Amino acid sequence: MICTLRLMEEYPGGEKAFRIGRLCTKRSARGQGYTTRLLRAALAEVGDYPCRINAQAYLAEMYAQHGFVRDGDDFVEDGIPHVPMLKPASPPPPRAVTRPASSARGPRTGVKVQP
């Protein structure tokens, strides 16, 4: 195995969200892009939903490059400093503004009407 992670679907407060855990890359394979490709694939599955991760503190900047932000106080687990992080839900795309057909060309100016 070169690289692995766990992606879990959760429903905190009844709202759909995801959590990434146990992201691990074989020491001899680190720095070759495996982690980034696997993380991007997981985030593609997450889509526009929020996603949480308890990142090892030294990796917080790497996760920040993928849209994660600190989300709570640092803590120690199994003797390793961790940072809770969140990739917020993506906002919906802006809605197109439509105008009635009569105003689609905007106001007309300088038009003279002959009787």
UniProtKB/TrEMBL annotation:
GO MF annotation, one: acyltransferase activity, transferring groups other than amino-acyl groups
UniProt key word Transferase: yes
N-acetyltransferase domain residues: 1-90
InterPro entries tied to this protein: Acyl_CoA_acyltransferase, GNAT_dom
UniProt keyword terms in alphabetical order: Transferase
Ranges for region Disordered: 80-115
Pfam families: Acetyltransf_10
Keyword field contains Transferase: yes
Name of protein: Acetyltransferase domain protein
Provenance organism: Mycobacterium xenopi 4042
Source taxonomy: Bacteria, Bacillati, Actinomycetota, Actinomycetes, Mycobacteriales
